[in-house]
């Protein structure tokens, strides 16, 4: 663009600037142009947009999963956890009796279902 194509005010402003100021203006304009080009490139990159969206959804799903686990854990009464631990302790101390009771219960259920 020649000086004659510019608005008279712009030409006057540029003529009053030192070469160093003009270089800074040019560098600033180049940086702004580079940022604009980069923003346009990001908008047209559908694959990258889809990947960002999928990553965001994965993060949301993980968070909801963690929240559900925390709610389930807090909803489980402590007495149920303590009772389960007692049963496991008794089974470890008396494995033969637990195996016998389990076999009896399995036989009883099989007999009921087969009728």
Notes on the structure:
The chain is mostly helical and 115 residues long. The chain has a domain of 39 residues. 87% of the residues lie in helices and 0% in strands. The protein is built from 5 helices and no strands. Helix 4 crosses helix 5. The longest helix is centred in the middle third of the chain and has 30 residues.
Query: pLDDT below 50 for ≥5 consecutive residues: which ranges?
Result: none
Gap between N and C termini: 97 Å
- Sheet with the most strands, sense and barrel status: none
Helix-strand category: mainly alpha
Overall average pLDDT? 81
- Count of helix runs: 5
Note the run of SSEs as H and E: HHHHH
| DSSP helix fraction | over 70%
Task: Count the E strands.
Answer: 0
- The global form is rod-shaped
Structural Rg: 37 Å
Percent range for β-strand residues: under 5%
Outline the secondary-structure elements.
Layout: H1 8-15, H2 19-44, H3 46-75, H4 78-93, H5 95-114
Care to give the gist of this entry?
The protein is built from 5 helices and no strands. With 115 residues, the protein is mainly α. The protein is rod-shaped and about 100 Å long.
What labels describe this entry?
115 residues, mainly alpha, 5 helices, rod-shaped
């Amino acid at each position: 663009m020649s000086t004659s194509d510019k608005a008279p005010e712009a030409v006057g402003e540029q003529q009053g600037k030192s070469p160093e100021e003009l270089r800074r203006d040019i560098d600033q304009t180049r940086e702004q142009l580079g940022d604009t080009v980069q923003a346009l490139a990001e908008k047209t990159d559908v694959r990258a947009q889809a990947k960002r969206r999928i990553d965001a959804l994965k993060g949301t799903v993980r968070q909801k999963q963690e929240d559900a686990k925390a709610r389930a854990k807090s909803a489980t009464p402590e007495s149920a956890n303590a009772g389960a631990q007692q049963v496991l302790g008794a089974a470890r101390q008396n494995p033969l009796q637990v195996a016998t009771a389990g076999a009896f219960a399995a036989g009883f259920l099989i007999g009921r279902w087969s009728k």
